[in-house]
């Protein structure tokens, strides 16, 4: 679920940070730049793990900022295909179930990836699985659900001209990183069922 990813970057330390140790200033800048952000084709960066190498700082002309080349590792959330994860159901639609983790909300289980015999109850706004024994099991909101990762989707969200931003609907904005899960195998689904 979590991996270490090695990256390099040019970090700028401003004169106001000269009073703290260089390593701490570098860590603060790297965490501010990467923590809780999606890196395209890498995953969701959680935090800095360690700094492997850093160059001598070069003072920029005019500003007094110090530029340092840094090689470092980040802890990244990127589950592998087939991994089983436990999350909570945030809501259900006729298209499927939205699931969240404590730190990540972009998980979707499409209706085609639910147990055979599942149907959407419009009055309750939940999915219901009718078992072979004619029992009805509900995918209720906020229930813990165990799902299997089937796919991941990265979207390159390039910046939009501010003049055009108002004309875009919120539905046109796709998340930068999204997981597609499934609940159609034994042991998957609402944790309380098993």
Keywords:
5-stranded antiparallel sheet, 5-stranded mixed barrel, Dna Ligase, domain 1, mainly beta, 47% strand, elongated, 14 strands, OB fold (Dihydrolipoamide Acetyltransferase, E2P), 194 residues, 9% helix
Polypeptide structure, described:
It is a single chain. The protein has 2 helices and 14 strands, in the order E-H-E-E-E-E-E-E-E-E-E-E-E-H-E-E. The longest helix is centred in the first third of the chain and has 13 residues, at 22-34. The protein has 2 domains: 2-77, Dna Ligase, domain 1; 84-193, OB fold (Dihydrolipoamide Acetyltransferase, E2P) (Beta Barrel), CATH 2.40.50.140. It has helices at residues 22-34, 162-165, and strands at 2-13, 37-39, 43-54, 58-59, 66-77, 84-93, 96-100, 107-110, 118-121, 126-130, 136-139, 144-154, 177-182, 189-190. The strands form 3 sheets. Strands 1, 2, 3, 4 and 5 form a 5-stranded antiparallel β-sheet that branches. By secondary structure, it is mainly β. DNA-dependent RNA polymerase which catalyzes the transcription of DNA into RNA using the four ribonucleoside triphosphates as substrates. One of its GO terms (molecular function) is DNA-directed RNA polymerase activity. One of its GO terms (cellular component) is RNA polymerase III complex. One of its GO terms (biological process) is transcription initiation at RNA polymerase III promoter. Keywords: DNA-directed RNA polymerase, Nucleus, Transcription.
